[in-house]
Amino acid sequence: MLEGALLKVNGLHVSYGGVQAVRGVSLEVRAGEITALLGANGAGKSSTLLSIVGAVRPKAGSVMFDGRDITGLTPDALVRRGIGLIPEGGRVFARQSVLQNLRLGAYVVAGAGVQRQRLDQVFALFPRLAERRTQVAGTLSGGERQMLAIGRALMSGPRLLLVDEPSLGLSPLLVETVFDTLADLNRHGISILLVEQNMAQALEVATRAYVMQSGAIALQGSAAEISSSDEVRRAYLGL
Asked: Which of 51, 55, 105, 146 could be 155's S-S partner, Cβ–Cβ 3.0 to 4.6 Å?
C-alpha cells in the first residue's frame, strides 16, 4: 500500500562550472513504489541522482528523506539513514573478492549476526554470487557485476534504493533479469528511484515516472499514462 513521500526533491539546481546541468527539478518517491526518472543521455538524470546522494553539492534546492533535510549530506551518512545506491554500470571494487565487496556494503551494520543474515539473503537472491564468493570481482561478467552491485547495496538494509542505469551494457535477457529483481525487491518493501534510458523497460515496473529534457522535468505522470500516449512516446521517449 502506497503511503506519503519518502524522498522529496524541491527546486534542485546543479551546475558544473558555468554549465547548468539540472534546472529546478522537483520530484518525489512515495513509500512502497518504484518511481522512474527517464530521459535521453545528457538530460540531467545522473546529475540529479548524484546531488541526491551527496556526491555533487546542489547550487540551490533541497532534498528531504523521511521528513528530514538531507541536502548535501555525504554518501556514507545517507547509507546510515537507509538510502542505498546502485551505481551506473554495476561498478564494484574490482580487486576485492565477491565476499569482500558484499561485506563492504555492510560497513554501517552493527552486529555480525545481522551481517550473516543479510549475506544469506543476498546469496539466496543471487545464487551465482554464492558460487563465486571467492572470485575477484573484476573478473565477473557484466551481469554478475550488476548482481554484485545490487547485493552490496542490499547489505546495508536500505529503505530506499537509488538505481542508476541498471540496464547499461547488459544483454536483453540480463536486463529482464535485473528488472525482475528490482520489482521483487519493491514487493518486499524497498522503495526505488530508477534512473534509466531503457524507458520501455522502466515503465513496465514503475508506478510513476518523470521525464527529463535539457536538465528540467518535461513531463510527469503515472507510468501507464506515459507509456500509453503515442504523442508522449514520440516527443519525449523516442519510442
From this structure: 105
Calpha distance 155→167 (Å, rounded): 21
Of the candidates 152, 200, 148, 151, the one whose C-alpha atom is nearest the C-alpha of residue 172 is 200
- SS3 of 54, please? coil
The DSSP output letter for 33 is -
User: Please, which residues bridge with residue 12 across strands?
Assistant: 25
Are 12 and 18 contacting, i.e. CB atoms less than 8 angstroms apart? no
Helix (H) or strand (E) holding 144: helix 142-154
- Beta-carbon neighbour count of residue 124 at 10 Å? 9
Q: What is the pLDDT of residues 212-229, one digit of tens each?
A: 989 999 989 999 988 887
**Residue 22 belongs to domain with CATH number:** 3.40.50.300
List the grid coordinates of 51. Answer: 546531488
The type of residue at 41 is: N
**Cell 534546492 identifies what position?**
61
Half-sphere exposure in the Cβ direction for 185 (13 Å, CA):
32
Q: pTM for the full model?
A: 0.91
Number of separate domains in the chain: 1
